[in-house]
Structure formats: structure tokens, C-alpha cells
Amino acid sequence: MTEHSIQAPVITIDGPSGSGKGTIAKLVADRLGYALLDSGALYRLTALAALNADVDLNDQAKLAEVAANLDIRFDIANGEVSAVMDGKDVSRDIRMERVSMAASKVAAVPAVREALLQRQRDFRAAPGLVADGRDMGTTVFPDAPVKIFLTASAEERARRRYEQLRGRGVSVSLRDLLEDIRARDDRDMNRATSPLAPAEDAVVLDSTDIDIDAVLQKVLDLVHARTQ
Ligand SMILES: Nc1ncnc2c1ncn2[C@@H]1O[C@H](COP(=O)(O)OP(=O)(O)O)[C@@H](O)[C@H]1O
Ligand SMILES: Nc1ccn([C@H]2C[C@H](O)[C@@H](COP(=O)(O)OP(=O)(O)O)O2)c(=O)n1
Predict the structure, then answer these.
(1) What is the ipTM of this complex?
(2) What is its EC number (predicted)?
């Protein structure tokens, strides 16, 4: 028996921005009673901390120091997860577009990824974990029994983000969002360390034309098939 085979199972959900990872990860975790790791939030928190401290986003050593020293926790109340940094709820702040852009830059720094690696693995606990991000199946939990790579066309992902932001009363242009999504895709897919890519043993699911319930059902079917 390997060391990993006695650990709690992990379901990894990787994919580009707006493909539905966060939504599906939360639903699967609720359904199975598993813990949830939103790994993107860690990169967003690092970005926010760096912006707040006026750290130059090109200073890799400083960024790694910021990542290693984050004082953060995730609180759960009424089924909603909030991100708390230095004792303050920053859940809304980390979703701002300028933080999203900074997060994608910060996430390209190898020393930042290294600094956050163990923090992510520490989320693994019984009865299991659902982890969403870009490299959950490739780098952070390579031994996960269930790996999903969720995609959708850039246009559909921009449309979803547009609706999501409008629903929150944020006014944005669909064209700007599509440009942002393409810029982030490019950076996430072409960086040297842990680029966005499906693991060899991942199942690729394209959600462009299927709704959330249908995606959830496909993922749950796969979980049952792989963990029986
Ligand atoms: N299959 C789907 N069809 C339509 N809308 C979806 C689908 N999956 C997710 N969404 C919506 O798209 C938006 C972005 O989803 P989210 O889970 O935040 O994506 P990600 O975590 O991959 O960035 C949310 O408003 C969500 O409700
Ligand atoms: N495991 C991860 C998770 C996120 N990232 C990067 C990629 C993104 O640009 C930022 C923010 O990720 P997040 O998943 O919150 O972003 P989206 O909700 O998909 O727009 O962090 C990463 O490099 N590796």
C-alpha cells in the first residue's frame, strides 16, 4: 500500500476562469459532505495582500514572502464560505477585477506557488476533499482518484461572468470581460510552472452547452464510478 492510498480521497476540478469550477466544487462538496478548497482564493489573497502593501508585482522574492506569511482563514456560515485576512472579511475584495488580474500575475511566480503548496495539501481530511483550481490534478494532488477538467468557450465564460457581476450590481462591459478572460487564459496556460492543463488521467468536461445540474450529475456519476 502506498502512503497516499490511506489518505482521504480528493476530487480535483481544474479549468479556466468561468468554466464553473467553483460552483460545481461547492455542490459536489455539499452533496458528499466533503471539505472544500478554493485554491484560487489563496492566489487572490496573496495578490490582495501584495497590493495592500504596495509590493511591486515584479518582485518575486517579496511576493513569495507575502504568500508564506499570509494570516488567513476560511469561515463557513449558512453554507457560505468567507475569506478572512488579518481578521477582516475580504471575500468581496478578492473578487474585484484588479485583484483577479494581479492574482493571475502572482500565480505565475514559482516561489509563490511553492510557498502555497503545503497550505493547500493541508486541506486534505476525512471523509474527503473537493479542490478546485488550475493545477489540483497535476501538481497539488497528483494521486487524486477523481480528476475533472472543466472547460467552456471563452465567449460563454465571459457571458457567465457578465451575468454574475451584473447580478451583484457591478457594471462592466462584456467586451472588456472577454479580453480579460483571454489575457488570463493566456497567462495561466503559458506559464512555466504548473500551467493550466488537464492531468493525463483527468476527464475533460465541456460545459458550454450544458447547465449546472447536468454538469453536477456527470461529475457525481464519475465520482461513484471511480470511488466504488
Ligand atoms: N454549466 C453552466 N451553465 C451556465 N452557467 C454556469 C454553468 N456553470 C457555472 N455557471 C455560472 O457561471 C458563473 C461562473 O461560475 P464559477 O463557478 O464562478 O466559475 P469558475 O470557478 O470556474 O471561475 C457563475 O455565475 C455560475 O453560476
Ligand atoms: N490552483 C490555482 C488556482 C488559481 N490560480 C490562478 C489563476 C487565476 O488567474 C487566479 C485566480 O483563480 P480563481 O480560480 O479564483 O479564478 P476564477 O474564479 O477561475 O476566475 O489564480 C492558479 O494559478 N492555480
Answers:
(1) 0.97
(2) 2.7.4.25
